[in-house]
Amino acid sequence: MSELIKTQALILESIRWHESSKIVSLYTRQEGLLKVIARGALRKKSTFAGRLETLNVVQCVISQKETRDLQILTQADILEPFGALKADLHRLPYGLAIAELLKKVFEKGHKDEIFFDFLLTMLHAIEVSPQPEIVFWYFLLKFVSFLGFKPDLRACLSCGRTDFPKGGWFVFKEGALLCPDCNGSVELSIHLTASDIQFLRKLQASNHRKIHELILNETVNTDFTTLLMRYLSFHLGHEIILNALKLLP
User: Fold this and answer.
1) Model pLDDT for residues 66-103, shown as the tens digit of each residue
2) How much is the pTM?
3) Cα 51 from chain centroid?
4) Sheet containing 176-178: order of strands
5) Pick from 32, 64, 85, 239: CA 20 to 30 A from residue 6's CA?
6) Torsions phi, psi for 17 (to 5 deg)
7) How does DSSP classify residue 108?
8) Are 2 and 65 in contact (CB under 8 A)?
9) Domains of the chain
10) Alpha helices by DSSP H, the chain
11) At 228, is the secondary structure helix, strand, or coil?
12) What would the mean pLDDT of 192-210 be, rounded to a whole number?
């Protein structure tokens, strides 16, 4: 017997299936990651027309049955289209990258209502921030923490010093810092300047509801997207490449 589930969902991907239907990847507030079939979605008079675009937030009704791998989407009403985000090529790739990351990392499920709300807050922040890349770095930093790999940026892992006037090394395995005196020849680490470390600490300590207000004024030398994606890939055991970021101007 199937049951009807009514839930909010972020559309991660929507692809053609057969002549008139679509397979849609959703991250839902109540059930986590789901793949559903939207039957007849490509027909001219379909009620799904214009509603199943990537990054739309919808209120949807899903007919779910445990014996089915793909559940059936019966209704979808747009709650938030993120129109301003989609219209800006300096912002859209970051939103698409978040959707792509969830598809590549999460298996079916991973439900977490707090994370779902956080996800929507990040998309809103990308939409309004003067520096949307900062919001994306913040999302990556919190995402690795959500997965259990929270970086410890408080002090040198070895000697405990908290000041890094000459910079330091971020070690992937421990997710921690080593000062120049303690580094030695640690493999899988990357050098960070003093300003890099200061900014990462500020980023990690920021309130997610005010992250759109954070501005990077100081000079940093590290590509934080590359750093955090390498760190994530290391702990997942395979390389994660976000093709959406290639769309950045």
Assistant:
1) 888 889 999 999 999 999 999 999 999 999 999 999 99
2) 0.95
3) 22
4) 152-156, 176-178, 168-171, 189-192
5) 85
6) -140, 115
7) S
8) yes
9) 3-81 (2.40.50.140), 92-247 (1.20.1440.120)
10) 83-86, 92-105, 113-128, 132-146, 180-183, 194-205, 224-236
11) helix
12) 96
